[in-house]
Amino acid sequence: MVNLDTSNPASVFLLVLSFLIIISLVISVHEASHAYFANKLGDPTARLLGRMTLNPAAHIDPIGTVLVPLVLFVLGGFIFGWAKPTPINPLNFVNPRRDGAIVAFAGPASNFAIAIFFSILFRIFPIQVLLILISINLILGIFNLLPIPPLDGYKVLLGILPKEAALRLSVLENYGPIILIVFLFLFIQFLAPVIFAILNTLLLLLTGTTL
């Protein structure tokens, strides 16, 4: 759990503000990466709608980007969140299944890339805020690769499965949010230790330390 010094309102305010800025920027990079690779692969939909940008205002969902991550951060629980979905039209892709999987993977890949970049800085300047930034990116990258709709890992899975199997599995996308909520409600207590074990392994490799 995050130890908030509630006796000092200024410290609480700065900590919360810093976290909101970090999570907004992290999710913005994630979504902009989806938009960038979609555009590169032939689908300009997100770019034309102003989503190929690092401006958080274009991506923020008040509930998923601000409220949910903030509450989980304060409670010291498993941190996750979401932004406004990046609009993709797979009909614009040359190979919709392959290109859709690439676009989906681009989001988590951006989180891992940010984590690697800041881990280099952490080796030089071992300050706590960098470790928090690295950890948030790793958690979001790992979590989003879970093969559960509507997460990116599910879309990657559809792109690598045989066509017939992917077609049967794709019907779950219509129930994505419900499936995710049920999954988290039933399995998060079992899943969180696994994710944190992976997180600490990656942190040890990248920074030489763990949470």
Indicate the topology.
Layout: H1 9-40, H2 45-48, H3 62-75, H4 96-124, H5 128-144, H6 152-160, H7 163-169, H8 176-207
Structure overview:
This protein has 211 residues and is mostly helical. It has eight helices and no strands. The chain has one domain.
Q: What features would you highlight for this structure?
A:
211 residues, mainly alpha, 8 helices
Summarize the structure.
The protein is mainly alpha-helical. The chain has helices at 9-40, 45-48, 62-75, 96-124, 128-144, 152-160, 163-169, 176-207.
Strand fraction band?
Answer: under 5%
Task: Count every beta strand, where a strand is a DSSP E run of 2 or more residues.
Answer: 0
- Which structural class fits the helix and strand makeup? mainly alpha
| Contiguous runs where pLDDT drops below 50 for at least 5 residues | none
**Alpha carbon gap, first and last residue:** 12 Å
How is the biggest beta sheet arranged? none
Count of domain modules: 1
Which of globular, elongated, flat, extended, rod-shaped describes the shape?
globular
Helical residues, percent: 55-70%
What's the Cα radius of gyration?
18 Å
SSE order, as H and E? HHHHHHHH
